[in-house]
Amino acid sequence: MDRLQALEVFMLVAKLGSFTAASRAANLTASRVTHLIQNLEKELGVSLFSRTTRCVSLSSAGQALFEQLDPNLGFITETLQNIKELSNEEPKGTIRISAPVKFGSTFLMKPITVLLKKYPDVRIVLNTTNDPQEISKGGADIAFVLVTEMPLSGVRHKIGVFSSGIYANLNVMTALSSLTSPEQLRSVELILQEGNASSWNLTGSEGQKYRVSVKKWSFKTDTTQAALIAAKEGLGAALLPIPLGESEKSLTRLLPNWTGVPVEVCAITSSRKISSAARNFIDLAKQEFNREQ
């Protein structure tokens, strides 16, 4: 952490205009301050200060570094301190989690089980909901959402990305069993979600692109879970995350060589500073996601 300390000392010298004053403010010896600045200058290959017997002033390179660091160094230092505190803290307490119904009741149960067995002082309350704005209502510490183009409030922690495929219930929509090309989707009843309401952008296995302009649709929703249920009921063909579509025995994937816009899985928290238990759970969710892919 010498580099971070050197940057902190650099900022003090720049603001106070004195190595001696900076050493007092940092509670370091004058020789330590000089050593840190000299090492920083050596690493960067430039002089950061112009020194005279009366004062210390920033060089042009030092001024450029100061302007870049001034608005950011405090945040970086605070973030590193928070992480250090979390690493020394045994996870405990209650984590309130919200997630889409299907996602929460299947995918999240593995990391939940692992965390509870590893840390006996942790408790978890899982609320399965299809409201992606739950976190902004104060209803959860972590809200898992499936994102296409939906705006979200809070701090986003990326868990991973699902590829999406086209699914339908062929027991109801028997005519779709003969579907062989994306062009034929123009005459198919579609189930739409926010982000793909006017067109479906598909990518073939060899990288070819095709844009399906929506001509017919029966149902539009802002949640993946509702689109899944509509597809199961035979209301139309839906673009769904592939693991979700494959988990439903009543659904068949159409045009398996074509995929839709990837669906990003995110964990949303109200701030960057979260409990050790919550951070551990997010890390476990990432590990489980990567294992499943």
Structure, described:
Belongs to the LysR transcriptional regulatory family. It holds the Pfam family LysR_substrate. Keywords: DNA-binding, Transcription, Transcription regulation. It comes from Parasutterella excrementihominis YIT 11859. The protein is of the alpha/beta class. It has three domains: 2-87, Orthogonal Bundle (Arc Repressor Mutant, subunit A); 93-144 and 272-292, 3-Layer(aba) Sandwich (D-Maltodextrin-Binding Protein, domain 2), CATH 3.40.190; 161-264, 3-Layer(aba) Sandwich (D-Maltodextrin-Binding Protein, domain 2), CATH 3.40.190.290. It contains ten helices and 13 strands. Strands 3, 4, 5, 6, 7, 8, 9, 10, 11, 12 and 13 form an eleven-stranded mixed sheet that branches. Strands 1-2 form a two-stranded antiparallel sheet. Helix 1 (2-16) crosses helix 3 (30-44). The model has no long low-confidence stretch (mean pLDDT 85).
Which key phrases capture this entry?
two-stranded antiparallel ribbon, 13 strands, 27% strand
Structure described in brief:
The protein has 293 residues and is of the alpha/beta class. It is built from ten helices and 13 strands.
